[in-house]
Backbone:
């Protein structure tokens, strides 16, 4: 079997999954913690999507860690296909959520501190930035696994 | 050479490119025509991206039409790679622009008819919907061409 760096079960994949878990959790925390995010659809959407991405990435990070440190797992085509599909869908949802959040934050920022006080607004911005980073790593995982797929 | 339906130079690809040109131009027209779109960053971004997608799709539609109706073009790996890369980047930009526009329109809609009169708001919504359709077709083209790439 070809060994693609970054594909399912390698240490590079573990690093990618770790980054995804970190960034998606950070995005979730910046958005949720002591902020009334649910008055805007885009922010609720971001929270929903990041709430899906974080456990998915964490679960796959655990599987990768098992494969790297304990016992190398055999890669089955069906399993890798499911992972690619899941990553694919979540990466698109992440991109859409991140760009919606960024544009809504930009509008609130322009509307002035009455609608969006400066500390809250910068937290929204940070949350959108973290979501973009999470999307980038998630999409890298898709590409690496897609590269692996034909060799299975 | 394998014949993948929807890949560069086939009639299905011509149909996809035609749809992309149509939807991106429609999105551009709904957004630009007699509307002050440039007061919102997200709308300006949509206009920029659709202004790139429309000529790119139209150019490739012309190439596909030449290949289908006049003389079948030989597919070179480098050319198909460039097309895949271009489609890829534009499809991501389209998705980001469409979701930003949709979320900003939703906020303006909630802010009431003072900020966004009903006929204008429904045009923004239509523009976002067209951009989503354009993204969907653009991404289909990416997948078909990506499928063709290893066989070249």
Residues:
């Amino acid at each position: 079997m070809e060994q693609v760096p970054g594909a399912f079960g390698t240490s590079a994949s573990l690093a990618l999954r770790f980054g995804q878990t970190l960034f998606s959790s950070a995005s979730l925390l910046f958005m949720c913690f002591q902020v009334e995010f649910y008055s805007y659809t885009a922010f609720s959407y971001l929270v929903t999507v990041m709430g899906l991405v974080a456990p998915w990435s964490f679960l796959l990070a655990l599987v990768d860690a098992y494969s790297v440190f304990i016992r190398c797992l055999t890669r089955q085509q069906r399993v890798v296909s499911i992972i690619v599909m899941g990553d694919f869908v979540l990466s698109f949802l992440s991109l859409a959520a991140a760009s919606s959040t960024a544009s809504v934050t930009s509008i609130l920022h322009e509307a002035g501190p009455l609608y969006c006080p400066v500390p809250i607004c910068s937290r929204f911005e940070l949350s959108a930035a973290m979501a973009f980073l999470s999307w980038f790593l998630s999409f890298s995982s898709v590409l690496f696994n897609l590269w692996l797929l034909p060799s299975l």
About this structure: Chain B has one domain: 11-151. The mean pLDDT of chain B is 88.
